[in-house]
Amino acid sequence: MKGRPFSGTMTPSTLISIYDAAFSKDHWRNALDMCARSMGANGAMLYEFSNLSQVNFALNETNSALHAAADILSEYNQLLADGRGSNYDQEGLGATHRADPFEVVLDTDIWQLDESYQARPEVQLGIRAGFLRRALVNLSDDPNTFRGAIFLYGRQCDAAVPQQAAEVVNQLGPHLSKAVELNRFTVELRRRYDAALAVLDKIDTGILILTEAGEIILKNSAASEVLAEGDGLSVGPDKVVSCFAAEAEAALKDAARCLAGTAVGENDEAGRIIQIARKSSKAALVAVVSPLRDAEMELERNLTGALVTLIDPQKPMKIKSDVVAGAYRLTVAEHRLVDFVLKGLTNKEIALELDVSPETIKSQMKSMFEKCGCRNRVSFVWRVFQFAPPIF
């Protein structure tokens, strides 16, 4: 099996297919077919594990070529479950997640593709399915999550193709990551309520859907409460979102325009995080803006726009901080900070609460952010939100 002709670019239709899959795993096959075509690959699959002892590849997160080899994929998973493998995936995925997010790791970066390599049981099964070469991509900046994509090539693949594919991954990677993140957010809704966006009122945090012009076309109860307060964020008679701070309003409207464009393949931005200052002295709202494409048409035919998640530090999320602390191996001192950060307290305010110096808090905060793979408070709040979506 030779590799497909290498397109070397991400087309608008590829981008649209990725965000179609964000709200339904039923669309991943088409999305991964498009990604594989862009990468010049034959096979493509996604994976996500909390640790490398639980490796098991899901058929509904593979492309058509791997669907056609479903029996071999099942045999592969059984090989791993029975402990008859050679730790091939532990080696490969471990190396991938030591790389930076969206960096391509080639098989030749990890192994020598000699006879002993081809004799490994996992590789033998791949060869039976028509695959030998592979390129792996880390899709997670979370140190406790092994999330990525694997692109598979035939035995006679041009050795230069995976190298050229690295350029495409720089474009594809952030969008694949965002789509998986959005799908993870809605999968619990789908499992519990057999719906995704139609049950937004089951989410105990503000959710808005905006058109590219910033018009609110859907909001849940939590978002309605935020808008009714008018403290930082409100809605005008034209249904267009408005912010107390002109700078924040311009940023939010620009994000809605750009991210709505991403959903229809007009640009390649994957998301933004915006802080919205308030009239009062309360901590700023955090708005996480993502592309929306309602591929399931549960709301309105061909609906596209921007999905805005509003996080209010004054209304802490109902999350057990000990679960977060355990997942990221936080120390007792770092664990104490989680709830304070979610409440929006400053370092100085936390120091007063705990009767320690602000420098101590600053040092502990830095360590906590590093363990969670976050750059700042805003990204930490979003990390916690992803870790445990506030669904009741």
UniProtKB/TrEMBL annotation:
Location of the HTH luxR-type domain: 344-371
CDD domains reported in the protein's UniProt record: LuxR_C_like
Family matches, as PROSITE patterns: HTH_LUXR_1
SUPFAM superfamilies recorded: C-terminal effector domain of the bipartite response regulators
GO BP annotations listed: regulation of DNA-templated transcription
InterPro entries: Sig_transdc_resp-reg_C-effctor, Tscrpt_reg_LuxR_C, WH-like_DNA-bd_sf
Keywords, in A-Z order: DNA-binding, Transcription, Transcription regulation
Gene Ontology molecular-function annotations: DNA binding
PANTHER family in alphabetical order: DNA-BINDING TRANSCRIPTIONAL ACTIVATOR DEVR_DOSR
Protein name: Transcriptional regulator NarL
Record organism: Roseibium album
